[in-house]
Every structure is written in structure tokens, then in C-alpha cells.
Amino acid sequence: MQLRLDSSSGGIFSLLAQSILSQGGVVFGVGYDEDLRVVHKAVDGHSVLSDKANSSLVQSLNDCSCSASGTTEQVASSPCTPKHSNLAQDTRISCASYASNSDLESRFRDLDLNPESNANKLCRTRATSQGDLLDSLRRSKYVQSDKGNSFKEVKALLKQGRKVLFSGVQCEIQGLLAYLKKPYENLLTCEVICNSVPSPKVWEIYKQSLCEKEEKLIDFNFRGKDYGWESGVFAVKTKTKTKTKTKTIPHYESSFMRGFLDHLITRPSCENCYAKDGRSGADITLGDFWGVGRAHPEFSDNIGVSCVIAHNAKALSVLESIKDLGEWELSSYEAIVAGNKALIKSGFANPKRRQALKDIIDTYNTKGARESIKALERYLIHRAKPSLKQRARRQIAALLPKRSKVYLKNLVKNLLGRDKKIHIAIATFVDTTNNYGQVMQAYALQKYLSQTYPKVDISFIDVHKILIPKSRRVWRAFKKYGILGFVRKFVAKIQARCTPHTPTPDEVYNKSCDDLRGLDTFRQSFMRAPSKTFNNLYFHNIPKADIFIAGSDQIWNSWGIVTKENFCVSYLYRYLFGFVDKRKRVFRNAKKIAYAPSIGSTSIPKELQGFFAQYLRSFDALSVREECNVDSLKELGLESICVPDPTMLPSREDYLSIAKPLARESEVFVYMLGHSTMIDKDALLDFVASTHKILYANANLNAQYACAYDDNTEFYPTPQEWIGAIADSKALITNSFHGCVFAIIMNTPFFALKLGGGAGAMNTRFETLLEIFGLQDRLCSDLEEFKHKFAQQAPIDWQAVNARLGAWSQVGKDYLAKNVGVYAV
Predict the structure, then answer these.
(1) 186: which of 22, 402, 620, 807 is 20 to 30 A away, CA to CA?
(2) How confident is the model at residue 121 (pLDDT cuts 50, 70, 90)?
(3) Does residue 659 share a domain with residue 631?
(4) Which of 322, 296, 330 has its CA nearest to residue 124?
């Protein structure tokens, strides 16, 4: 109990520090110097190596062979809800673990963090001389610390082979790792969740304002628990020649604390922190579990609860070594973020901050500390004294159980419509009139996100209508065509607009086919319409959202028409979210996430690699659809993972609920894209039609690669009929990636045809997909190979395929839960 009272939250830092000290290591944390300046200081474990009683409690880290870097995070879910003993616990930790593979996840679950099996066991941290040494490093200090030579000392100790624990806010961890330049096995880094840091100068002024004449400040606690963990106070101890005086200042009465929370005295760099959301590179994230009463009410005792996020195997090993010293419960990342937005969001910019700091410093230089703090108070938000009605309401609320208060608060919010919706904007191919795969992948991503996060507003942005200003377009045309050329182009464009267009017979035919496919009707019925038209990229009408998702399909394929010269006016620039500039205030807290986009080839064109590196570096999370593209991005210094196409996120039942049963008699459904194939289409289809009844459909017809069946087809299915045709046919033959995907989902035997010519680079998507499901033998590259496989009709082990589909789909769901669900809470 005493350890938790002495700490700001649940006392987890002390356990981690004692683990390092007991092995002769060194702990770096934030404490006070002799003048109560906030500094980074070290505690050396050599002074307590003789304390065998405590060292026997912890497990050595020497067995951990995992590097501190390079593990991609994945959610480990299923929070447990144990029944706890009525006895007080010394350390309370609600822990969420993220690991790169199932082995790490299972290791975390194997820690036996569920106290239900141990309900009557009282876990207490043993008091030793280490605790006295660590006391100066405990508790939060709401000031930017002076690092001194701590980075150099850490590096020197690591080179000596000493174990080191370094604790600091997120940017300090990022700075340390950048200084070290390489990972060290004997370094453990712990970042503290930070809501911005106040100015050290203002802290020095505030300290002086607390003392009367001849008084000296001898101790200060930023987070006293005199009134409980949730109602913090400043505990101030001063001393004169004759006596020592102690007083407490509630946070809501402290000018310093109010200035901090209003971001009047915080550092400007905190407005756009680049170390948030696990990007610091720390092994462990520590913080207060605000909102624990909602997530785990049985843990809420108003003494303090820590949240712990383990980012890699080294962190899990350390947690395993201290598992018996506290009371643990597995939680979720979303539950932590719900009450602690500072984990993922930067502090806001107060427009009055610059002037407030100037007045504080000028007043201090001329009139002293107390007048300087009064100058700060003039900028604080003055809250009116609560009315009798408000005081009565608060008294009634204080008598209600916590769960009832939360329920009533949410009910009022829903009734009054005060809940601010998170807006997710998806940019992907969505406006096609003939490509079923394109529209279905867009539908699937929105469908899954809508089901998973029903309170989130999800829509599509039409990036093709984001145009550069006319003045810039005119200037580019002048440079390209010259004055006379520009005039000719201008006159030709005016004449074209004034002359009514007479559709050709081919255009009329294609329009009638597109109307039969009904993709526009499908979008109107099942998908959110694209957002409004955005006419100006640089000045106004910029699309706004909380989360921007670069969706799937080949949105990052240059198709050979994007060059270095035209990149910034191309569609590729928009799908790389070049218009979402995080340096602009409107996008400062916006998140950019890539979900399964395809580059369309095994590598990025050399002339565009610089642009990819520049714009993808600002993404908060990167994923791609093909495994080879992970390597392509890695060559540019970008980390990404391979995730499934969005069409694999919804279940088979979700698709069957909108599918229309096949009304035509058919044994084999043939679906072709308008690309060349390595097999002659007519010869292949003549062979199949000789023994089976064929139902044929095509998409995005290209006359150059047309076959006789393209000209004679009469089947232009709607998306619902297209799904039904795949589900009801005995077999599918296709050169479409999404055709193969839906055959796998519907458990329909299929044969995939390799593309030829310029489209051959897109065969990587077939190879990645079929390798995942162990169906490489379904890919055909010549007619004889196809005839042999079609005649043999080798059975597919659908039970094994479905198991792989479930596991592969979960990879995508976990990626979205971590990178979208956190912000959607």
C-alpha cells in the first residue's frame, strides 16, 4: 500500500527499477537536485548488490535474446475480469501487450497475470535500501527535465556491459535512441505518457512564489494523494530557521497546474510531437490508467493504477520477472487510449501562449515572482462559481455508484447529440463502372469498419476532383506549350465545350453495358457516397478527416504514365496523401494510414522512389497487399507489413446476405478482365465449352485484347449477381485477382490465368495470394498446363483453406484495431 501511495499511479516504475538495480544495473529517471531543479539523475545498483533478499525476487534479463527494436505491434485481446481479494495490494497494473507473432502473445498470456487463480494471495513489494534510493525518482514532475550528461553516461555504461533502465517522456526516449545510433541488449527504455511539458523557467518562478520571506522550499510533490489518486494536489514543504511548514494546493487552485493544462506554459515543440503512439522506440510505455473505473471497475480504489504497454520480447521478459510482485489484469490498447488521449495525440496550441510567456518573464524581471504568477493568472480561463443548482447536482452525483454515473452521462450525451463523431476518409478506386473487384474492395473496407466502429462516420473522398489552382494550371500550360500553343489549346477547348458531343456506337454500347452492371446503383444502396467535390488543393475546400486511409487496389501503381515531371499534378500524388500536410494546423492531429494498397509491380520506379519515401514517411502506419512491396518500401527506409485485401475482412455470410442466386444454368463461370493473358483466351474457352456449359462475363473491355466471347457475351451481372455466380458455379476461370479472392471465400474451385504483356508485372498479386493459401497449383501460364489441371480437377482441402483465411483475415483486423480502433474509441 505504501509504495502505491508514494508513487504517482500504481508503482510499476519502482518494480522495474528494483529489477535492474538488483542485477547491479543503473536506473536513470527524473528527480530533483539540491535546488529542487528537475533533472535526469542516476541510481547505481552497486550500492545495494548485497541485498540478496530483493534480488531473489527478480529474474535475470540475461536469458532475453530479443533485440529492443523491430517488433511490429499486434493486439492481444480478451481482457480478463478476476475477483480480487479484499486485501489491499501494493502494486496495481492493468497491462496491455502487443507482440509481432503468436509466440510472444502466448508468452504474455502465460505470465498468469489473471489473479483469479491466486485470489487470496497478497502481493507486496519488499522495502529495501533500493526503495530509499529510488524515492527521488518516483512521482511525476510536470517540468522539462535537464538531461545534463545523462545520454553520455548511459552510452558509457552500456559499453561497459552494465544493465541500464532509462525512463523519460516519449521525445526523450526517441532522443536517447537517436544518440546511441544502435540497439543495446542491456538497455531497457520506459517512456512515460506525456501531455506536453511546461517551461523550466516558469517552474523556477512558481517555486519562488510559494515561499514567504526567509522561507526555503525543501520538498515538492506534483501528485500528492491526500484526497485520492483522482484528485491530485501539490504538496509543498517549506522551511525557515525555526520551523518546517507543509501545505497542500489542489490542482484546480494552482496557477501553475492550470497554466499547464491550458497549454499556456508548455513547450512549443509539444504541439506537434513526433514520438507519440509508440513511435519513440521505447520498450515499455508507462502511465496512469485514467478511466480504469469504466474499463475495469474492480480495479478502481482511488489509490492508483498503472497502465503498461510492452512493445517487444525484451519488455515481456522484464514483466515476467516481476509478475508475482503486483496485481495484474490484461486490458486493451483502446481502453487505455479512451482515458489517456495523450498517448496518441499532441498537445493543442494555445494562441495566447507566446504573449503569456512574454508577460510572465517581463513581469518577473521587473516586479518579482509573485507578480509574475499574477500575470499568468490573467490568461487563465476563469471559471464562474458554480450555481446552487450545479452544486446540488454534484452532491447527488457524488452519492450515485460510478457505473450509474457513467451510464447517465452517456445517456445524456446521446439524447443531446453531444458525441463528436470521428470521421474516417477512405481514398481508393471506387467510381468504376465495370470492374467488380474495385468496387467490392472499397465496399468491403467500409463494411468492416462500419460494423466494427458503428459510431464512426466513414466515407470516401474523390481525390480525382482535387485540383490545383487555375493560376498554376495556366502557368504550367504556358511553360509547356508557349504563348501560341496555349492560345490554340484554349480555343480548341472552348470549341469542344460549345460543340455538342454525339456518342459513337461503341460509346452507346458500352454505356448500355455499364447500366446493366448497375455499379452506380450498388454504390447508392450499400456505400456512402464520396464526399463533396474539392476544387482547390492549396487554398480552400481541402478534405478534412480525423483518419485518412489509403485503401486497397493498385492506387500506388504509376501505370507508366506518372513521371518525375508530372508527379505533383498526378493522381498518385493524391493517393499518397500529399495534400494531407501535417505541418498545417488543420491536419496536425490527422492520422494517415495505408491499408493494403498495391504498387502493381515488384519494385517502385526509380524516378518515383524519392517521392514515395518523402510522402510515405509521414504515414502513421504502412501496410501493403503484396509481400514483395514490403521489401520495396524497406529499401526506402520504410517499415510496413503485408495484410489481406479488404475483401477478406467481412465474412462469407456478409456477402451471401447481399448476393443474388444465379438464375442462369451454368457449370463454369468465366470472368475476364480486359488484359492480355499468357494463354490464348479463345482456345482456352473453346476447350472448356466443349465439355461444360459456360457463363461468361467481362469487365473493363480492352478491344486490343478482346476475344470472340467478349463480343458475344450477354451476361453483364450486377455486383450482387457477380457474387452469386461465383458462389453457385461448380468452377471459376478468371484472370482477376478479386475473382480468385471471392472463389476462396465462397469455396468455389477455380483456375487463375497469368497475365501477359505489360500487365505481367501484376502477377505478383496472384503469387502472394495463392502462396498464403497453399494453392499455387491453381495458377496457369500455358494452355497445356491448364488443360491438364482442368481435366484432373484436383480437389481443394477447403477446411485447411478456411483456417488459413481466418488467420490471414485476423492479421488485417489486428492491424486496423491497432491503427484505426485506437483513434475511433
Answers:
(1) 620
(2) very low
(3) no
(4) 322
Residues 631 and 696 in one domain: no
pLDDT tens-place string over residues 789-811: 998 888 999 999 999 999 999 99
In degrees and rounded to multiples of 5, residue 673 shows phi and psi of -85, 160
CATH number of the CATH domain containing 702: 3.40.50
459, containing H or E segment: strand 457-460
Number of domains in the chain: 3
Lowest mean pLDDT among 285-299, 384-398, 486-500: 384-398
Q: Which three cell numbers stand for residue 121?
A: 494471495
Residues 395-425: b if buried by 16+ CB within 10 A, e if exposed: eeeeeeeeeeeeeeeeeeeeeeeeeeebbbb
For 144-182, write each residue's pLDDT tens digit. Answer: 888 888 999 999 999 999 999 999 988 999 899 989 988
Can you tell me the distance from the alpha carbon of 466 to that of 463, in angstroms, rounded to the nearest whole number?
A: 5
Higher pLDDT, 739 or 566: 739
- Report helix, strand or coil for 591: strand
Task: Determine the structural domain holding residue 44 and report its residue range.
Answer: 2-197+266-343
- Tell whether 543 and 448 lie within a shared domain: yes
Say if residue 155 is in the same domain as residue 68: yes
Which DSSP string do the residues of 202-266 spell out, in sequence order?
HHHHHHHHT--TT-EEEEEEEEE-TT-TTS-EEEEEEE-SS-EEEEEEEGGG-HHHHHHHTTSSB
Please, what is the Cα angle at 443 between 440 and 448, to 5 degrees?
125
> Are 671 and 568 found together in one domain?
no
Same domain membership, residue 148 and residue 39: yes
The 3-state DSSP composition of the chain as helix, strand, coil percent (nearest 5) reads 45, 15, 40
